[in-house]
Amino acid sequence: MLVTSRSAAEYRAMFGLPSGALPGPVLDCSAGGASFAAETGDEVVAVDPSYVAGRAALVAGVRAALVDGDRIIASHADRFDWSWYGGRSERAAMRIGAAAAFLADLARRPGRYVAGALPHLPLGTGSVELALCSHLLFTWADRFDEHWHRAALIELARVARREVRVYPLVVKGTGDPVPFLDGLRADLHAAGLPSTLRPVPYRFQRGADRMLVVDTSGR
Question: I need a surface site. Which of 7, 108, 163, 212 has the fewest CB within 10 A?
């Protein structure tokens, strides 16, 4: 997995979030090196397995992800659209700024960054209003199978009182659709967790123009 540094602006576009206050508390899982918590405020708790490492390892992981992420993009150059960022240099500057903000906030407020991994989160049931999952579920469907995805979504639904939002819904690099997405949604619906596919204003990986929204309010 990459310790990727995405900005709050990217999060708000990827998840269709308002520009103002969020219906907190909000979970960012797996947050990696994102600056969403740093930029947004105390209502965000970030969870990621990489946080069990020391600061030096996290700094190295964040730096490596900046390079490795670009390598994945370069190997599938025809699958990406740079228009949302304005260009390659603008995206690079946003990612570098997000990494710096994350590392600075980690040093100031380490308690906001909780070591944990799906499908078993160290959080109480209904402890957040909204759970966000960026570039883990479905992105790595070539590594994690349908059974793992089902367990991960049920766990996110356990901790979220209102909604779980997941973006994107395609495989990293290639942008291939996930073959078990429809069946997984049917399983969730049968378990009392209806879901919708909702368009988002963010554009980068071709075909990644929707998020999965799981309604947890009826549980």
Answer: 108
